[in-house]
Design goal:
The chain has a single domain, classed as Beta Barrel (Acetoacetate decarboxylase-like), CATH 2.40.400. It is 20% helix and 37% strand. The chain is built from seven helices and 14 strands. A hairpin with an 8-residue loop joins strand 9 and strand 10. Helix 5 packs across helix 6. The relative contact order is 0.20. The mean pLDDT is 94.
């Protein structure tokens, strides 16, 4: 077993193409002088709240041997059951992602696709409290959002995909496909169909029931990320999930995720469900 991963390394951006622009962009996004200036300014003028009308959120979760988990931030520990910890990939389509202050003008903003890959933590000071998300990987499909997030945020450090499909049909079938080319975005291939009921007895038993399980996987108000320069950053979010609206899915077909497969995960064993829509806000951000 190798030493736990430091997420600072996986936060480093590599562009999908080896062009002059692709070689220059990471240098700009990782510029230490700009990071210091932005952090100094943000202490006086906090980041404005961001909003999005998110839709078609597909959660896929697996149990992973906790020995594969990266180093957690100080003051936090992993949620562990029988030596394993939950890991979730959720993919979705934004609905006009932009500053909340824009009001109705936010309708002019684009709606990128995004995929968040995450672990779950508890605070040492509040071991029974709301779980905290630890970002493992983040992917978006529009360069403007990737560059903007990396230039103005520490807690959101997305990677750019070369191909990002996240589609659902009226019959309840769908797929998520992510390709990163020569860049740093992780690869993913999931297919699913609507299930006729919830089948997750082992998961429910680990969390004390069906409703507790779904709340654990979906209801968070804080996410932590590791920056390229080895800081920990926290972002506060508002995500009012209606547990009753969640729809069970069944993973099927050819499934592909080198990140998880390298950790010995059987992808077909995953628990999947869909959240049709939810309003989402990024409230604040700070370095820990």
């Amino acid at each position: 077993m190798t030493a736990p991963e430091d997420l600072a390394q996986s936060a480093i951006y590599r562009h999908p193409s080896d062009t002059a622009f692709g070689r220059m962009l990471p240098r700009l996004l990782h510029a230490s002088r700009w990071s210091r200036l932005r952090r100094a300014l943000s202490r006086r003028w906090p980041m404005p709240a961001l909003a999005s009308d998110v839709r078609d959120v597909v959660y896929a979760s697996w149990w992973v041997d906790v020995r594969h988990a990266p180093l957690p931030p100080p003051g936090h520990h992993y949620v562990v059951h029988a030596g394993r910890t939950p890991y979730t990939i959720l993919s979705y389509r934004h609905g006009h992602f932009g500053p909340a202050l824009a009001g109705p003008l936010r309708a002019l903003m684009p709606s990128p696709r995004q995929s968040n890959w995450r672990w779950y933590l508890r605070s040492d000071d509040d071991p029974e409290g709301t779980p905290v998300v630890l970002f493992d990987r983040n992917v978006m499909d529009q360069l403007a959002f990737v560059a903007g997030a990396r230039a103005f945020s520490d807690a959101m450090q997305p990677h750019l995909s070369t191909r990002f499909e996240h589609v659902l049909d009226a019959a309840g079938r769908g797929r998520t496909l992510i390709e990163g080319g020569q860049g740093s975005a992780p690869a993913l291939g999931l297919q699913w169909q609507a299930a006729d009921g919830w089948r997750h007895d082992a998961w429910s038993a680990a969390f004390g029931g069906h409703q507790a399980l779904l709340r654990f996987l979906t209801c968070q108000d804080e996410a932590i990320a590791r920056t390229c320069d080895r800081y920990w950053a926290s972002t506060r979010i508002a995500l009012p999930v209606d547990i009753g609206s969640l729809q069970p899915l069944h993973l099927e077909g050819e499934l592909h995720c080198p990140r998880l497969q390298a950790m010995g995960v059987a992808l077909e064993s995953g628990l999947a469900f869909r959240l049709p829509r939810v309003p989402f806000r990024v409230v604040s951000e700070r370095l820990l």
